[in-house]
Design brief:
By secondary structure, the chain is mostly beta strands. It has a four-stranded antiparallel beta sheet with strand order 2-1-4-3, with no helix packed on it. The relative contact order is 0.22.
């Protein structure tokens, strides 16, 4: 049975074919859910799409690797503006 990764996760393994300093130290795959990607593209305000990445050092089958996960970037919520009681609420239809 073939391994099926969880959506928006991946693993970076030591690069067995590293022959020079310019080659990556680790290589692997990241399996991104199509709906997650569409959502990130839709929310992007520029040509660049920002995705947060987190990683955990693990030992899998005797090999050191980096388990990674992608998520929506954290956005600090702006402090809510207080609503004055004497101003009408524009969201109320009456």
């Amino acid at each position: 049975m073939a391994f099926i990764p969880k959506p928006n996760t991946g693993t970076l393994w030591p690069n067995k074919f590293k022959n020079s300093a310019s080659h990556p130290d680790k290589k692997g795959d990241l399996a991104l859910d199509k709906e997650f990607l569409k959502d990130m593209i839709r929310k992007s305000e520029s040509d660049l799409v920002k995705i947060s990445i987190a990683g955990w050092v693990k030992d899998i089958n005797g090999q050191d690797c980096l388990s990674i996960a992608a998520s929506e970037p954290y956005v600090k919520k702006e402090e809510a503006k207080p609503v004055r009681q004497d101003e009408p609420d524009e969201d109320v239809p009456f």
